[in-house]
Each structure stands twice: as C-alpha cells, then as structure tokens.
Amino acid sequence: MTPLLLDIVVKATAVLAAAAAVDARLRGRGSAAARHLVWSIAMAALLVLPVASSALPHWALRIPVARTVALVSPDVTVRGSANAVGRSAAEGQDAPAPVSIEPAVSTRRPLEIALVALPLLYLAGVILLLARLALEPFALRRLTHASIDLADPAWQTRLEAAQETLRVTERVRLLQSPRDVMPLTFGTMAPTIVLPASADEWTDDRRNAVLLHELAHIARRDCFIQRLTSLTCAIYWPHPGVWYAARRLRVERELACDDRVLAAGAGPREYAGHLLELAHSLGSAPAPATALGMARARQLESRLLAVLDAARNRATLGPRTRAVALAIGIAVLIPLAAVRAAVVSRDIPVTTAAAAPKTPAIAIQSPDLAGTWEARVSRDPGMIQITVRTEHGAHGRTVRIDQLQGVTADQISAPNSTVRFPIRREAGTFNVDGVCRRGVCAGTYTFEPDQAFAAALAQRGLARPTPRQQMDLALADVGIAFLDELARNGYAKPDLPDMIRAAQHGVGAEYVREMAALGYRVGTLDALIRLRDHGIDPTYARAMSDLGFARLTVDEILTARDHGIDPEYVKGLRDLGYRVETLDALVQLRDHGIDPNYVRGMTEIGFPRLTVDQLLTARNHGVDPEYVKGMRDLGYRVEALDALVRLRDHGIDPSYVRGMTEAGYPKLTVDQLLTARNHGVDPAFVLGMAEAGYKGLALNDLVRMRDHGVDAAYVRRVQQRGLGHLSVDELIERRDRGMDDPDAAARAVVSQIQSLWHSVVTWLRS
C-alpha cells in the first residue's frame, strides 16, 4: 500500500469516526433529518478527500516511532557468523566480510504476487460497482417505458395538494406501473414517482400518505444523495465503515421522510398501518437499487416504533442550519486533508531478556465494562428515566429517585450539580459519575462484577459468566432471583446463554412475576421473550384484562398487540358506544382503519350509531369524513350510506365533481354524475373536446361520443382532412364506419391480403 493510499484510508476512517460520534450524540435528542445531514456531509467529504489531500499544501505531523537496539551483555554467548569472526581473529586471519542474508525466493514470491493482485482486485471492485451505477438509468428507463402517466384528475389533484404542503416546486411526473411494485421515487433533474398497479384500489388516506412520503424524498434531494453515496461506496468499497455509513444514511433517510409525513398531518397509527401493509403486500417486488422505495422490510420494525413514538424529535432543518453544518464540515475537512503524517524513528537501547528489569503489571479497566449514561426526570412524580449506553446498544429503565443511593431529587433538579452514586445489582455494581442540569443528567460509568455472583451460578450448575456477561445480566437485573422466580412459576432452569438472552430482551424477575400474576405462565422462556419483544408488558396485559380480555393465549395477545389493539383503542370505541367483545372483531375493525377518530368523524357529519358492518362497508369503500365533507361542500348532501358507497365505488369524489364544474358542467345530479363517470366522461375528455371545437355540448352527446370512440384525437384527424365542423351524429357515423381511422384502414389492408392468400392456397390445392 502506497503512503498516499494509506494516508487517504486513515483520513477517511477519521471522517467516518467523527460522523459516527456526532450520530451517536444525536441519537437521544436530535432528529432523523439532522443525523442524515451528518452522514451526507461525511459521504461528500470522502469524495473530496483524495483531491483535497493532493491539492492542498501539506502540513507535516511528526510521529516518533521507537526502534529498539539490543545491547548484548558480556556473558551472552554469540553464535553463528560472529563465532566465525572470533575464530578468524584468533587465528590471525582476516575477518570474513559480513554475510548478507537474502530472504528465500519462496517467501518473496507470495508477497510480490499480493502487491500486484491487491491493486487489481481493488480496481476490479471499483469498475464493477461503477458499472452497476452506470446501468441503473437504463433499468429506470425500462421501468418508465413500461409504466403509464397517471393523468387521473383525482391523483393529479392530490399530487398538487401534497406538493403545496411540502413546498415542492419542481414538476413531478406521476406514473403507474403495470405490475405491483413498491411505490418509489427516482430522478434528480426530473423527479418521477412510480405507483403500483393496485394503487387505484387504495383509500384516500393511503394515497395521501404515499404521495407525501415520495414527495418528501424529492423535497430533501434524497435521490441526489443516494447517487453520491453509491459513488462513494464504489470508490471506498474495501472500507467497512463506508458501508456502515451508507446503511445509516438509508435508515435516517426513511425516518426523516416519515417525520415529514407526520408533520404534514398524517395520523401516526394510520400511517404505520399503511407502511406495514405495503411492506407485506409489495415488499418482495423488485426495484432498481438507486430508486427510493417506500417500505423496505428490513427497516420496518424500527420505522414503526419511530412513527408511534410521540416523544420523538421530528424537526426538519432549515437552510441556515444546513449551511452551518456544511461550513463546519469544510472547516474540519481542510486541515484534515492538509495534514500528512511523517514517521520519525528514534533508537531506544534495551537489554536482553535476561537483563531486562521487570515492571509491575497495571490493571486496566476493560472498555467492555464502561460506557456513558444519561437520565431525564420522568413525567411521573419521583421517577427518573435512566439510559445506559454500551458499545452494543442502549438500555433504558425508569426507577424511583429515592432508590438511587447518594443522589437526591434536588441535585437532579439543580442548575448545575455533580453526582456520583452506585447502582447495585446481583451480578455487580455500576459506579456512576456525571453532572445534572435542571433535570437532565449525563456522564460515564464503570461496571464492577461481583465474584460471589459468578460462584453462586456455578453452584447451581451453570457456567461461570465472563465480566461482560455479568454486565449484560446486571443491565436487566437478571440473577439468582430470576432463576428462583422461573422455578416458582414452572419454567425449566435455563442455562447461561438463555439467561443472557433473556437479559438482552428485558425479561427479568419482576417481569416473570408480574406476568405470572396476570395468568401468563407461558411455559418456556422463549415464549416470554417473544411477548417482551412485541411490547407486551404487565401494564398492557393488566389494562387489557380490566377491559374484559383476561388470560388470553400467547397467540391471541400477540395478535392483539401486533394489530394495534391496545387499551386506548378499546376504550375509545366503547366511549362511542361500540362494545366489541371478541378479539377477532376488534382486529378486523383495526385492520380496516376503523378507530375512534374515524367513528367520531362519521358521527359528526350525520352518521351516528352505524353498525360494525356498516362501518366496515363505509371504510372499505373509501367513505370517510373527509370524502363526505368534500361532497357536501360542493352541494351534494347524500344522506344514505349506500348512495355514498355507490358514488365512491364509481370514482365520483370531490376532485371529479370540481373538475367537471370547471369544465363547464356544474350542479350535475347524482344520476348524471354516475352516467358520465361510468361512460368515461371525465374533465380531461371534456376539456379535450372543447379544445377541438366541441364546447358546451349536452352531457348525453358527450356520453354518446365517448361510447362510440369519438375523442379529441379522432376529431383532429377529421379536421385535418378538411371536412370542417361536423355534427355529433356525423362524427359518430364516420367513426362507426371506420372512416378517418388509420387502424381501420390497416385492418382492411390486412383483410384483403388474407383473402388473396386464401385464394392462392385454394388454387394451389385444386
């Protein structure tokens, strides 16, 4: 590896390490947009780094490196060529010349091969990844050619409204693929959104959510950053840190777009439901790598948790903040690119091993047993939320302040105070140091394993844990009491790996005891861990039990939790008069998007006390409060739910009615709307005919022309033949006779050729 290449690798590692440190700092309080900006600047810096390192003046940083020189003691016997020198001198002969020892050919050859092969391997990887990046536009072009422009006024109106909400001023092309692909966005100069074939069946809420999410990518210039990231990965492909940075960029990009959708007014639970269903139904659909898909299955769990986290920071970044961050990145990059390490050797004489003095061993605390912590005063009086961070993740827990030895509530609430306290667990003690400022604390900790605990586990037939394993157990307070609690409730004795796995998933003695008291003795530790992973804790189980859903099976309570059936949802429906007693019925309602907000909205617009079947019918057909209000604002007070469902099923919505009004057909009756819509008379058709000279026609004439295939393109072909302004009946007659229709003429020619060929074949056979 050349010195310049080594210099670039070291500097790139420093850039990525700095970005990772800032990212870790922003995990607790910063927004996804801020973290995405940090990684974007880091990726751009890696691209600029080789050029800047070559162009900027060098600033030498001298690094002294010790080189040892052995001092041989007089009593050490020297062997080899030195003995030969001694004998020659003793015999009065000239001393032989120093012997030059060359490395063996078998040792040199693999090294030479490696020095040639490694650069070639690197170049091959770069070329392969750049070729893949260069071929992506062709894949996107094939996808575009196979799709059709979605010119439906309903879609276009929603697109324009979403663009206005997110302040997207570029012209965005909206396409619909003939296949069920994941909704995706691509294009830097000409942004394009591609929707699946099944998009026509979506509800209004899902249409709005998908358009807002894809437009958020366009507003944030995510397509450009994605291509920049792909280029960086191609150049630095052997560096694992670059791939980690690319993954972090993808994660924070989707979280930032989700935050924008929620900031635009989407309901968190409804939006999470859309993500889950899209990932489930379209997650396996192939898509080009550089296109930005909406709901990848790999990130789904973390995104759903983030969407439903009400305390999450969802702030976007203004131009000033981005400019400041970019300026800081440039200020860090310039000196880093200019510095060039210069290694300076310094000889240090040492004695042989026999004469070297012995130095006492120094015990150094393992980095695995140390880390950082932070705490915030909880909303519950007298409680504090403590988060302990290790190199493997974060572990949070809410405890009473009076349970912390050596710290008081006054210290935590003080403007500036120093705290030091132990957190004792069976497996060991966390020695915590830090500062507190007005209810927010942070600092460092070290973990001291308890040797007696390890011995106690060994007495019970378990393997002795390592210090790191004891720390994992202490983080979840898993110890002897946990084993005793499992035994009391009929669980088999776990081994040490099972104990550690339970600790890592937050299953402790208290969890086992409280879940057992609620009737959940689930038989195996794996089932307990599964419950815990799905967010089923004693608080949730107790609240569901109080609502009449006690002693559910493991599968039943998992189904309820996974489908968003929580106490708040059940209480909300019951307050509105819907006492749904079966879990299956609740799951059906939840899966169809029927929640208290939907029921309350339908009640406020004049549909109170709908049955469960009526609610399902209305929701499944897209009849929601927004739709009803929109129709009423246009003068259509349809009081019967069946009539509303009929209108919705035929694609008659406020956008369609508004478009027909603007095209010159206001105040159509419901039957006229249904007739026009069913026969394909929409605003685009009406405006096209008006531009061709047929403006202000009766609706029945428009329907007749549409039914006979007379459209604006056909009228223009007729006019180009110099026939003037024909009547509606004349146009329909010419169309029915196939006149002025290139396809009809082509079909006639083909028919004549087939007839001639048939005659020739008949003659030959005769």
Mean pLDDT: 82
Radius of gyration: 37 Å
Main structural class? alpha+beta
Euclidean distance between termini CA atoms? 85 Å
Q: Going across the major beta sheet, what is the strand order?
A: 10-9-8-13-12-11
Give the uncertain stretches in residue-range form.
Answer: 67-107, 343-365
Oligomeric form: single chain
Q: How helix-rich are the residues, as a percent range?
A: 40-55%
Q: Strand percentage, roughly?
A: 5-15%
Q: Can you summarize the main beta sheet?
A: 6 strands, antiparallel
Q: Kindly state the number of beta strands.
A: 13
Please tally the helical runs, counting DSSP H or I stretches of 4 or more residues. Answer: 33
Structure description:
The chain has 766 residues and is an alpha+beta fold. Among the domains are: 214 residues, no CATH class; 136 residues, no CATH class. The protein is 55% helix and 12% strand. The chain has 33 helices and 13 strands. A hairpin with a 5-residue loop joins strand 8 and strand 9. The longest helix has 42 residues. The protein is globular. About 8% of the residues have low confidence.
Question: What tags apply to this protein structure?
Answer:
766 residues, alpha+beta, 6-stranded antiparallel sheet, 5-stranded mixed sheet, 33 helices, globular
Q: What can be said about this structure in brief?
A:
The chain is of the alpha+beta class and 766 residues long. Helix content is 55%, strand content 12%. The chain contains 33 helices and 13 strands.
